[in-house]
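Morning F.,

Quick status update on the modeling queue. The single chain you submitted on Monday has been processed. Sequence for confirmation:
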Amino acid sequence: MSYLVDPPLVPEWLNKADNGWQLAAAALISIQSMPGLIILYGSIVKKKWAVNSAFMSLYAYASCFILWVLLAHNLAFGDKLLPFWGKAGMSIGRDYLTNRAKIPNDQMEPFYPMATLVYFEFAYAAVTLILLAGSVLGRMNIRAWMAFAPLWLLLSYTVGAFSLWGGGFLHQWGVIDYSGGYVIHVSSGTAGFVAAYWVGPRLKCDRDRFSPNNILLMLAGAGLLWTGWTGFNGGSPYAANILAPIAVLNTHIAAATSFLTWTCLDVFFFGKPSVIGAVQGMITGLVCITAGAGFVRGWSAILMGVLAGTIPWFTMMVLHKKSTLLQKVDDTLAVFHTHTVAGVLGGILTGFLADKELCNMMLPPTQYGTFYGAGIMQIVKQIVGALFIIVWNIVVTTAICFVIKYFIPLRMSDEQLLIGDDAAHGEEAYSLWGDGDKYDATRQTTIINADELQTSNITAARGVTIEL
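Structure tokens below.
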């Protein structure tokens, strides 16, 4: 057979349906990051932090992209260097990108080019970094974040991805993580919590009252996040096969169930449904199902949704208030509860509920749930897998923060924290002022009362008006 071009634009091994679905799934995951989380973060924080919070997300996406194609993809999915790490290398060469994709898993052989796989896996990495950012919104020095994001991608994310997905020791041992319950959510929640500890808390006045600047826009961002999860879990079989729609259906079942469970708990205990709480419930359901979305039956997805709306609700609304450690760490958007707690819960439930028939479509015949006869060892493997991700992120995130703080302060000064976006970027989200007032773009006015001034130990700051 002869072709007009060499190599052919449509090689014999290319499955157009698989390729199209994988690119669409990657695009849906990217929509979760931008605009989804950019809108969510920019609207769920105080008005004075809207620009900074959105920009942290956009910067993470851009920096992750360049590093991913230059080094990180092969660290996560390349040839083995260590039991938990691949060999670094570029993934932008012509031959590399036009050749058929290879995944370090004997059960799968995708029918599309490496370029598709590189983009798809990048989308996962980017959303992980942006989820982590939710823990340090409202006070992390933007220059410190600019250094932190690429370092964490290289030294932490790639290790989890290779260990569980890229043929590393946890993958070989049989830990099940269908779509990133551990690689993405436990790692981002744990690293965010640790980073929040080292960065330090927001000002007391911000921590006590940190109301969203636009709840309707926050819901729009949350809706994009939920919708994008169709690609997040639907793309994990690496093909447009039977597991993809099963994963999509289970994803939305769990999210809706958790959303409703969280909302009902708020009504029962507090008398009214919290909109922010409902969004948290939606997220915990999505996170919980991720580790086993394509491997569980519909009834299991409902059960996982109920538990995802209950256990993280308890840790956030009850346990958090009684724990000295949890109170000490200022985790801005409670990423620890919505991602670490829900992610570990989903991983353990997957070890129990993963259906043998579904697992055998993608995994070796020995990997399936305890409920279906695999024995207690699968639960043990799931717990050990979670502990590895948690411990690695505690150590590496701490090391990264220690290195950065010798060159750049991790936290903005109290004077800058009073001002917000204008101090961090010289820009504001909303250029609105009263009728008849002359707008001064060089000055941001923040009104605080005398008690707040005393508790924040600030004697004077540009653009601060003291209200007695």
